[in-house]
DNA sequence: GATGAATGAGGGTTCATTCAT
DNA sequence: CATGAATGAACCCTCATTCAT
């Protein structure tokens, strides 16, 4: 005679939690961590302070959850992009382009990951570094796996150059007035070329001949 | 009882202002913008709240001044590094290396410029973008000035890849435990090579021939 | 679908109510009224918020019930102690000792009755005063009933001195590190002597002759 | 040329601090710790939240200060009362009476010390125990100093009985409707007699002969 | 010019209580 | 009867900024 939590309730809980996360992502992306207040998130979520603190320990917690979600989505994107290519080099190119395009199409997520979280210090910045480090490690592995020509220099350093180039290029692109922006995939392709050349595997044929 | 501002007073004013700026730089670098409070700056400057607001309009103002100072110091460093080299390519390499080393040796300034200010939004983030953009434009000009082989792609994009690679590499390097760090100039050299290859001008002899 | 309350259900209800009361007594005794939250009581009772509010009107209500239970248990103890003695004086001595020992052996109850409830104000403090007053009245009656030598002074005042002495002595004893405590019954005997002397009936033979 | 804090400012600071303390004492005495809010204290002090937190670390802090002040005033009263008597026994009687009268005339202080603070737990309750313990120790010393007849039983226990009797009697007296109250000094005298008899030194001649 | 006491808006958070399931 | 998600009033506290001395 014990009443279980019905599936319906579980669904609603998940929906509400997701709503909080969605709203929070949007607001954190638009206003940043400090200028986004818990009451703001609550109001836009059509909910209440109490509910908010039922789902999240505190403001830091929901930001962390947002960040984790972003990290997971990006990893998924990267893995998918890589899986669709056979050759190592093409995989790297695809990864860069997908990363760029994902961030370009999700500016709130991009702002949170690239701009906002590093400045927060403590556990939040650590989380961001973790995400970024996991991307960097993917690159490191890929670099290490290139059969031909050994890549020059410390793979970890190269990987961070690689990631930094993508992030900074996205930031630049996002800051351009929408009217002046070239198509994201075009720019993404250029960034990819820059990076591939940077690790010594780029366009030997392409650039060399032109 | 009419006071003229004597030269002596002027000196003292300048000294006090500088003290505020130095302390603020250290604290902003260590704790970040939000966790650094005006009373903290005041206390470490052996001064008073009232004095603080005599020299600066508000907290944002002093942060902006700190940021400007950093920007100026960096430009000076860059110009000096460039002036010491004759060839274009060598100038670029020198610029990258100097940039990296400067940030590595001044972690507070690095944190303020690279990590803290972008997340602040508004005028402060704009200021940071201005500094970064001026560096990027230097790179753009240098790229455009390369006589031989036209560099591939949009110079602005490449410039931002370039700058992003340096900044992210520095960030990575600064986050390493001091014991694990390789000498800054070594890493700087690797970053320089990555970037030069990235813009298609790296190691023409080195990589191209092998 | 009309439900009769079966005997079995009644039992279960009573059991659950008692569980709430037991847990609440423990927690109120350990943490005090304000630091004990309804969710805490609920969690330790393996039940739910809803159930809690089915059995009790509100937090104040359950505290009141706890307090009443304590008062009843103490009255029972006192009556039992008194019933076992024939002489008036011995009854008083027995009452004091039993009171002391009961509180010493039930520190949670002691803390609730002696320390916590007076500070709560309103109905809860009134309830505590009621319990204490009933003890005091027992003492008053006993004092009034002493056949010989009329006790000096206002019986109500004496009664409260009497009760205050016991409570404060218990509090002192409870605050001692367990290692330093003398056996409760020994201390209780001393308190009893103090009080009996205080109302002018103590140890006429004992002290008077020495 | 350094501007010192003028004496005038110091005075004003002291005055404002005292105002906060006075108001807090009144409100804590009337409503208790939890129902007294910082905004309440601020409003009645004609001041501001910021000022409040300039003078006190937090709500607990101001309560502690209030408590300390009460403790100091009471010690002063006791010492004064004792100094005016020559004989040991008379000193004890005077101390009890003064204690009683002081608490009776300062009901807010009495409520804070006797009723409110023990239930607060943590540092505040510890502080109260400290005050009470110092009174108890005075009594202990006095008891130990009685030249004739050694007082029966553990002095520490007796001292707490003594103190408990006074406090509880005051509490009883304060709870009486003002109309029903006998003069405080009369009741105080009765309590004193109770206690002196309790420690075996009371009215050997007085009561015994009557 | 220098000082530091004073201000107060606004933030994050808790928790007793309700009610739909 | 049992459950636990939902509510929201209210609190404590911070800190950028002002201004009388």
Would you kindly provide a written description of the structure presented here, covering whatever features stand out?
Four copies of one chain form a homotetramer. Chain A is built from ten helices and no strands. Chain A is an all-alpha fold. Residues 204-210 of chain A have low confidence and may be disordered. Chains in contact: A-B, C-D. At the A-B interface, helix 1, helix 8 and helix 9 of A face helix 7, helix 8 and helix 9 of B.
Topology:
4 copies of one chain form a homotetramer.
Chain A: H1 7-35, H2 38-44, H3 49-55, H4 59-83, H5 88-105, H6 107-116, H7 122-145, H8 155-175, H9 184-198, H10 204-209
Chain D binds a DNA duplex (21 and 21 nucleotides) through residues 1-6, 8-9, 12-13, 16, 37-39, 47-54, 58-59.
Q: What is the second-level CATH architecture of chain A?
A: Orthogonal Bundle
Beta content of chain A: under 5%
Quaternary structure state of the chains depicted: homotetramer
Question: End-to-end span of chain A in angstroms?
Answer: 79 Å
- Give the SSE string of chain A: HHHHHHHHHH
CATH class of chain A: Mainly Alpha
Shape descriptor of chain A: elongated
CATH superfamily of chain A: Tetracycline Repressor, domain 2
Q: Which regions of chain A contain 5 or more consecutive residues with pLDDT less than 50? A: 204-210
């Amino acid at each position: 005679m014990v009443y279980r939590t019905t599936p319906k309730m579980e669904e609603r809980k998940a929906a509400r939690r997701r709503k909080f996360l969605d709203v929070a992502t949007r607001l954190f992306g638009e206003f940043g961590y400090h200028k986004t207040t818990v009451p703001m998130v609550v109001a836009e979520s059509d909910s209440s302070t109490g509910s908010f603190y039922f789902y999240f320990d505190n403001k830091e917690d929901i930001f962390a959850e947002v960040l984790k979600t972003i990290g997971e989505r990006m990893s998924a994107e990267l893995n998918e992009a890589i899986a669709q290519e056979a050759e190592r080099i093409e995989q790297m190119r695809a990864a860069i382009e997908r990363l760029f395009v994902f961030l370009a199409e999700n500016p709130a997520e991009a702002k949170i990951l690239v701009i906002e979280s590093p400045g927060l210090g403590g556990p939040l910045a650590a989380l961001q570094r973790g995400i970024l480090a996991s991307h960097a490690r993917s690159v490191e592995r890929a670099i290490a796996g290139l059969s031909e020509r050994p890549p020059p220099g410390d793979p970890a350093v190269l990987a961070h150059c690689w990631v930094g180039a993508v992030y900074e290029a996205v930031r630049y692109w996002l800051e351009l007035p929408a009217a002046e922006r070239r198509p994201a995939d075009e720019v993404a392709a250029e960034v990819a070329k820059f990076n591939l050349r940077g690790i010594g595997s780029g366009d030997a044929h392409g650039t060399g001949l032109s």
